[in-house]
Amino acid sequence: MDVERDQIVSTGPIPIVDLSQTNEELMARAVVKASQEWGVFQVVNHEIPEELLRRLQKVGRQFFELPEKEKEAVAKPANSKDIQGYATNSHKEDTQDGADRSDHLFHNISPPSWIDYRYWPKNPPHYREVNEEYARHVKKLVEKILGWLSEGLGLDREALIKEGFGGGDTAVYTMKINHYPPCPKPGLVLGLQPHTDIHGLTILVPNEIPGLQVFKDDQWFDVEYKPYAIVFLIGDPILRMSNGKYKNVLHRTTMDKEKTRMSWAVLLKPTYDKVIRPLTKLDDEAPKFKPITYGDHVYRKVNNLPLD
Ligand SMILES: O=C(O)CCC(=O)C(=O)O
Ligand SMILES: [Fe+2]
């Protein structure tokens, strides 16, 4: 059998993995290969209902369409160390160099002890119910993918979620809605500057406006929009936990001249005190990274301090 063709059904260069195949090993291998070579892949025919994704996008869109004053009800408090809340950067001058020209809403969605409903919009009224339902589905999908990635390292299925992220009920899941309003000079500015993700894994649902680009082999590639597909991006901690086997993909977002782009990203993170290091059974290989707490990693990245 032509494994290569069966495992990745792709019209573009970014790997696309069909999760409705019966052969689990093929799907697992496709996810592992994509993570080694690209650090990004899309999944289609996952078990998250399409109508739930439509509702997730609808309530998010309704929130961002509210007048600025109403969005401020969940604003990130000034000087808050916590990322949670609404913040706007899209009013920045178009020519301002190096600025991210986008708006965001962050709030934790799991575990329950990390949820602070002050940052969850009360308007539209279904916002909370839809996001709670989505959180349950995302967790299941993430655990499946991390299981395959663990096995791809020669470890047991639970290694990444348990040893890497501290366990299914300890790992922190944060919803981040990105909102990129139309930009009259899209060539001059970016929605998000090129970056690798500070957190471990990003599970992304974009709207239909193209904009996400990933870097590989000295070239940027567009991530093709596929309705209801979910994009996975590997972040820095998984690079470290896998001792460099899984890539932390460099990516950025562009702006559209006329249309608003939005994306719903769930960020998977360890708690700040968790030490990030190559996983135990990878210890017999020379470690490529020094142990570092997740909190220290975030601090160093945010402040442009050296990491290793
Ligand atoms: O909006 C996107 O497609 C990507 C967002 C992203 O890279 C991020 O939030 O870190
Ligand atoms: Fe990102």
Describe it for me?
This protein is of the alpha+beta class. The chain has a single domain, classed as Jelly Rolls (Sandwich), CATH 2.60.120. 27% of the residues lie in helices and 23% in strands. It has helices spanning 3-7, 24-37, 50-64, 68-71, 127-151, 159-164, 236-241, 294-302, and strands spanning 16-18, 40-44, 85-88, 103-110, 172-180, 192-195, 201-206, 212-216, 219-222, 230-234, 250-253, 261-269, 275-276, 292-293. Helix 2 (24-37) packs across helix 5 and helix 3 packs across helix 5. Residues 1-11 have low confidence and may be disordered. It binds 2-oxoglutaric acid and fe (ii) ion. The site of 2-oxoglutaric acid has 12 residues, from strand 5, strand 7, strand 11 and strand 12. Pfam families: 2OG-FeII_Oxy (PF03171), DIOX_N (PF14226). Keywords: Iron, Metal-binding, Oxidoreductase. Residues 90-102 have a biased composition (Basic and acidic residues).
